[in-house]
Amino acid sequence: MSSQIDHLLTETRRFAPPAAFAAAAVGTAELYERAAADREGFWADQARELHWHTPFTQTLDWSNPPFAKWFDDGELNVAYNCLDRHVEAGNGDRVALLWEGEPGDDRRVTYAELTDEVKRVANVLTELGIEAGDRVAIYMPMIPEAVAAMLAVARVGAVHSVVFGGFSADSLRTRIDDAGAKLVITADGGYRKGKVSPLKPAVDQALADRGSGPQQSVEHVLVVRRGGNDIEWTDGRDLWWHEVVPAASAEHEAQPFPAENPLFILYTSGTTGKPKGILHTSGGYLTQAAFTNRVVHDLHPETDVYWCTADIGWVTGHSYVTYGPLANGATQVLYEGTPDTPHPGRSWEIIQKYGVTIYYTAPTAIRSFMKVGRQVPAEFDLSSIRLLGSVGEPINPEAWMWYRSVLGGGEAPIVDTWWQTETGAIMISALPGVTEAKPGSAQVALPGISIDVVDENGGPVGEGNGGLLVITEPWPSMLRGIWGDPDRFVETYWAKFDSQGYYFAGDGARLDDDGDIWLMGRVDDVMNVSGHRLSTTEIESALVGNEAVAEAAVVGAADEATGQAVVAFCVIKQSYMTKHEELDGLVGELRAWVAQQIGAIARPRDVYLVTELPKTRSGKIMRRLLRDVAEGREVGDTTTLADTMVMSTISGQVTKK
Ligand code: PRX
User: AMP-binding enzyme C-terminal domain: which residues (predicted)?
Assistant: First the structure.
């Protein structure tokens, strides 16, 4: 990579953990030494933190790469590990879920209560003919029953496919089809943005589209009543949760399943149009999800109140809402709605109400909080927070500093956690009691994880250089395949560095002079301008460093002269607009600003001031659509956008100029 991206790496601020934090931290420097001395032995130790019905004797079988087997001859029950064992240890009265509904209703669910509920649901599943290996689709709002549904499926050895509640009937149908689900668990609807957002009608639609022939794998639909909205009912197929679950027996002995028994499929978008069903299995996945939740989030289950804001429809909700925290016996907040409903301080009100100590969210959320302004969180008592986490995209140093000062009281450590749906659990992150934090860098591979940054030929680039992020050794929570498509699995992740046997993550990264890792965005988001490589991430970071800019997205647009040209879309801060009546001249200023921050090569050809950016429901900016606008094409498929109107608004704003 060119020197133009050096400016991010001149970050000199360092933040050591507060001494008291470091003294009590779960993750210690000794973990690195132990893992470096004996990587497999280290993971075997972590796996032994779980309850095994049959202890494993073999740690890793890598005899048929890239198809790994971890703890293969061991047997466990994932739900037993998340529930029964805590009750048996005398912690049944500990609260597992502090649930907050969007309208303000709430429920506290203890480990004993959640165990009882999951046992009943497991009995219902068995009555409905669900057996080990069968697939169950879950399409639910963020309510305790959603977590119970996942655990009940796991308890009977079946495989869940959680489909995010914001996906359309059509996306749900393709996912049900691909997995051949026998049962769908849903709700009438859930609360979102102040009103009931219906779910069951989308299930009806998805199933109707599939007809009733042999292709119709779904036999039943289990429905939780949450929204109270009117729904249609298919007798014989549809069942109310509140009728069948309380009526079922609460006696259910968890059976052991092999460590490599499939646990879930989770669909994620790839470079082609067809979503990939990422497959995860049981023992290795749970080992790494639980371990990372303990050491990265510094979880002390007896005292902490943990809140990961992810929806269970995404991998973060799987690993850091359902499996990791419950395997560790944590007490956690589960919130149904959006962070700004019914008022912009909703998240802070929840932190204050429950005394949240660990808060894990996405940079996109942090930036939207910044946009609203620090006066909103200032109205609440956030002093309980002692650790902050970030996930999903690079966090720009400005957002990092805001996060630390406004939410973390100027001292809470921040962990910037890099991982993917495919990796199953965190791979790169600081250990908060050990590592001196650097704003903007995800920093180092976790103990037991082997990461490198390499060139196109797989050669290490070395400190001070950029290249492609690879994982060089198998890890316990690695994906075991793409559902029904082993060739695509090999081709997508392993073919590029076939001879080295590396997993290619699809991300560009850079090692700084300390050997710390800086994620530079997906490699498909890296532009090539006049033969110089530029990172969209870096230019965005520069733009949001300008006092006028709340959010920015940068794309590389085809350009006759330079190959690609930088095109930026910026959302301007409300406070800036109030102060400056005219935005004339701002475009020029921003172009100059970027040139000044990074170098003339990075000066955007075009800067468009827009009111919103196109984002998926999980908050990722859809650069593909912006590239369409930047290149004057008709905008492509917008169905995965959270708000499908955004693109017509942006196109209007751009053409008007
Ligand atoms: O590009 C990286 C980015 O998100 C991708 C994985 O997306 P997904 O499978 O949806 O999982 C998101 C939640 C784990 C990665 O390839 N990404 C994730 N975390 C970070 C990140 N980029 C930079 N820094 C991170 N901390």
Answer: 538-620
Q: What is the pLDDT of residue 2?
A: 38
Structure tokens at 277: 């069903």
Cβ(550)–Cβ(370) below 8 Å: yes
What average pLDDT is seen over the chain? Answer: 92
Q: pTM here? A: 0.85
- Please name the residue whose Cα sits nearest to atom 6 of ligand 1: 420
Q: Which of the listed residues 321, 361, 393 should we mutate to test ligand 1's pocket, taking the one with most ligand atoms within 8 A of CB? A: 393
Q: What residue's CA is closest to ligand 1, atom 8? A: 420
Confidence of residue 644 (pLDDT cuts 50, 70, 90): confident
* pLDDT of amino acid 652: 80
* Per-residue pLDDT at 243 exceeds 70: yes
Q: What's the gap in Å between 391 CA and the centre of ligand 1?
A: 7
- Domain covering 530-656 assigned CATH 3.30.300.30 in the classification: yes
Query: pLDDT by residue (tens digit) across 526-537?
Result: 676 765 556 788
Give the number of other CB atoms < 10 A from CB of residue 513. Answer: 8
pLDDT-based confidence at residue 83 (cuts at 50, 70, 90): very high
Ligand 1 atom nearest 422 alpha carbon: 9
For the chain, which residues make up each domain, given as ranges?
3-449+464-505, 530-656
Question: CA geometry: angle at 340 spanning 335 and 345, to 5°?
Answer: 95
Ligand 1: residue of 293, 367, 418, 492 to mutate (most ligand atoms within 8 A of CB) is 418
| 3-449+464-505 to CATH, choices 3.30.565.10, 3.30.428.70, 3.40.1440.10, 3.40.50.12780 | 3.40.50.12780
Q: Are 653 and 611 in contact (CB under 8 A)?
A: yes
Query: Of 160, 115, 113, which is closest to residue 136 (Cα–Cα)?
Result: 160
Q: Please state the atom number of ligand 1 nearest to the C-alpha of residue 519.
A: 23
Computed from CA positions of residues 311, 314, 316, 321, in that sequence, does the dihedral angle turn out positive or negative?
A: positive
The pLDDT confidence band at residue 363, using thresholds 50, 70 and 90, is: confident
